[in-house]
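Good day; I would like, with your permission, to put a structural problem before you. What I wish to show you is a protein chain and, alongside it, a tokenised description of its three-dimensional fold. I would ask you to consider whether the tokens describe a fold that such a sequence might reasonably adopt. You will find the record immediately after this paragraph:
***
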Amino acid sequence: MDTVLAWTRQVKEVLDEIEQTGSYHVREEYVRAKNGEIADYYLDLYRWYTRQARRLIEIPAEYDLPIWLSLTEAQKLPPAPGTVSFTLQIPKESIVIADMDKWGYRVNYMYVPTDPADERRHNEELRRYGIGNEAALVSGPKGNFYPLLKQKIVKSWDRVFTPSDNMDNNVGTIWEIRPEWIREVERYG
């Protein structure tokens, strides 16, 4: 079985839950507690991500919020009080790899370009239409006036799931942590 080595830093309660219940998955209340007033924004993003990821791997229906992973030691989050870091060995069929730079475009409701030339062409198109804030095409009513441009932007978001050739630009996502995937746990205060 092919596997992927990955790391994730979580609050210590995640380890407690794995020890008590045999697995961990993200719940809406965790996202709300972490993100406060902007939680709905993140919940919408994460649910979109999961809907798209379901086309790539099998994800249990009750899980709709991803767990984010570092895929190289260089990406590994530093120690923080009250957290634990898991080193995981995950079956390849349980993980989705995404390009973090492309995810940044998606997070900001922007067009995900195929390359720098495509980005220049897109930005020139926005200038021709006099659009200074492309996010308004998706997040506001401006998209009603430019439906084809809005559709182009939304369709481009699938490129998030085309990994970068540079592994340090990629992130992994899973929808649960199983104890058999845990290779090491580091506890930080």
